[in-house]
Write a structure and sequence with these properties.
- By secondary structure, the chain is an alpha/beta fold.
- It has eleven helices and ten strands.
- It has two domains: 204 residues, 2-enoyl-CoA Hydratase, Chain A, domain 1; 76 residues, Lyase 2-enoyl-coa Hydratase, Chain  A, domain 2 (Orthogonal Bundle).
- The strands form two sheets. A six-stranded mixed sheet has the order 1-2-3-5-7-10, sandwiched between helices.
Length: 290
C-alpha cells in the first residue's frame, strides 16, 4: 500500500476510511494532501472488496480548517504560483476542484464524518460526498468572500444542488461560520452526533451499503443521480434508466437479489465494478450524450 504522509487509509469489512492527518495544523489542506487523497481514491476504486468510503479528520477539533496558506504548507494551494496570460492554461486550475472532480468520479459511495471545524476547502470538499454526518462541535464556513476570493472546488455547482440556491448564496455572501444545527436545518448535513458516536454512525451507514447491496447497482445509481439530475429534460434520465434496467435485470446480481429475497438470506452479489459494469458505461463519454 502507498505510504501517505498527510492522510491515513484503513480498510476493514468492505469499508475504507480516509483520515486527513495533520492534527497539529487542524488538518489544513495542502497540495500534498490533495494528491494523496486522489491516489487513495484510485486505489479504492480499483479494489472490489471496498464498497463504501468514510472521510474524517484526525483529532477532535477539526475535519479540515481550510487551505494551509503558510510557506510550511506549500502555499499556492488554489492554483500554480506562476503567472500565465492564458486562462485555459492547466496551471490556472483550482486544486480543490481537481479533488472534488476526482471524488465526483468515484464508483463507491462517499460518507463524510465531519468531526469539528470545516471551513473553506474543508467544507467544499465534503460537497462531492454523498452523505455528510457531523459531530456536535462541528463548524462550517464558506468563507471566501471574507478572504477576497470566490467559492472554489466546484462548490458553485455542488452547493446549490444540496441546499438550494438561496441558502447557498446566504452562506457564501456572508462568509460566516455556522454550527452543526444550522447546517442540518439548511440541509447540508444528514445528522448530528457526539464525538464518541460519530464514527460509529458513519460506519453503520457504510456497512448497511456494503453488506446488503450490489456494488454494480450502487455504482450505477451514484453515476445516474449525480449526472442526470441536472439534465434539461427527464427524457435524458429515461434513456439511461431504460438501458440500466434492461442490462442489470438480466445480470447475475439481479438473479442473486431475487434469490436471496425469496430464500430470506443475506445476499452474496458476484458482480465486480472493475469488470462487470454494463456495456454502455460510462455513457457520458459517448458523443450522443454530450
Amino acid at each position: 500500500m502507498t505510504d501517505y504522509t498527510q492522510i491515513i487509509v484503513e480498510k476493514d469489512r468492505g469499508v475504507a476510511t480516509i483520515t486527513l492527518n495533520r492534527p497539529d495544523k487542524l488538518n489544513a489542506y495542502t497540495r500534498v494532501m490533495q494528491g494523496e487523497i486522489c491516489a487513495a481514491m484510485d486505489d479504492i476504486d480499483a479494489d472490489d472488496d471496498i464498497r463504501a468510503v468514510i472521510f474524517t479528520g484526525s483529532g477532535d477539533r477539526a475535519f479540515c480548517a481550510g487551505a494551509d496558506l503558510t510557506p510550511e504548507g506549500g502555499g499556492h494551494v488554489f492554483s500554480d504560483p506562476n503567472e500565465v496570460d492564458d486562462l485555459s492554461d492547466q496551471r490556472v486550475r483550482d486544486g480543490g476542484g481537481r479533488l472534488t472532480l476526482r471524488l465526483f468520479q468515484s464508483t463507491k459511495p462517499l460518507i463524510s464524518a465531519c468531526n469539528g471545524v470545516a471551513v473553506g476547502v474543508g467544507a467544499t470538499m465534503q460537497l462531492a460526498m454523498d452523505a455528510r454526518l457531523a459531530s456536535d462541535n462541528a463548524r462550517f464556513g464558506f468563507v471566501f468572500a471574507r478572504r477576497g476570493i470566490t467559492p472554489e472546488a466546484c462548490s458553485s455547482w455542488f452547493l446549490p444542488k444540496i441546499v438550494g440556491i438561496s441558502q447557498a448564496l446566504e452562506w457564501c455572501y456572508s462568509g460566516r461560520i455556522f454550527d452543526a444545527e444550522e447546517a442540518k436545518a439548511g440541509g447540508l448535513i444528514r445528522s448530528i452526533h457526539s464525538q464518541g458516536e460519530l464514527m460509529d454512525a458513519a460506519r453503520e451507514l457504510a456497512e448497511e451499503i456494503a453488506q446488503n447491496t450490489s456494488a454494480i447497482s450502487v455504482a450505477m445509481t451514484r453515476a445516474m443521480m449525480w449526472r442526470l439530475s441536472g439534465t434539461e429534460h427527464p427524457m435524458m434520465a429515461h434513456r439511461i434508466d431504460s438501458r440500466a434496467i434492461y442490462r442489470l435485470s438480466r445480470g447475475e446480481d439481479a438473479k442473486e437479489g431475487i434469490a436471496s429475497f425469496l430464500e430470506k438470506r443475506p445476499p452474496q452479489y458476484p458482480g465486480k465494478v472493475s469488470q462487470d459494469m454494463p456495456d454502455f458505461y460510462p455513457w457520458w463519454e459517448e458523443p450522443e450524450f454530450q
